[in-house]
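Example 178.
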Amino acid sequence: MKQIKDKHFIPFIEADKLQARIRNLAQEINKDYAGKNPLLIGVLNGSFMFIGDLFKSIEIDCEVTFIRVSSYQHTESTGEVKQIIGLKEDIKNRHVIIVEDIVDTGMTMQEVLGQLASNKPASIKILTLLYKPEALKVPLKVDYIGFSIETKFVVGYGLDYDGMGRNLDAIYVLDEKS
Ligand code: IMP
Ligand code: MG
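Predicted structure in complex with inosinic acid:
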């Protein structure tokens, strides 16, 4: 049991299980992208720990970079608009893999995918550690999934609750009884 601010979290995916699954994901990348020098684009902040471990297990030629997604209120009618910041690399004709910590409604990834695709990469895929299939609100193809989970709030291994909990080495789930 971990207390973060006002909430209690209980163990959900242990560290060894995370690491084993991440090595499997890396093997899939080794196989699918051999000779393609893929560019992994990590979405900060949540993906920082995951992409570090994933990257260490990738053995083919590959590169890594990071973006942030800033949310701002565009107009009242269009609601929240998300914009990519921080991409310095030219991704034209590159094989791009977007690396995310978790796909929830899918709105962030749909927006990021659309904006990156407009730069004409050779291919573009989404890789996420966690995926909440029942929370998805937009059509989105998620190509590589670490774990599909129920629609519950989780923290740890890069994921936060109000900025806290990212340093936990495993995934914890909100204890709904607390
Ligand atoms: P989406 O646009 O709804 O798919 O949200 C994606 C972002 O919401 C993720 O990159 C996370 O930053 C955050 N998020 C969604 N679910 C959780 C959760 O259970 N714990 C922590 N952050 C989450
Ligand atoms: Mg995120």
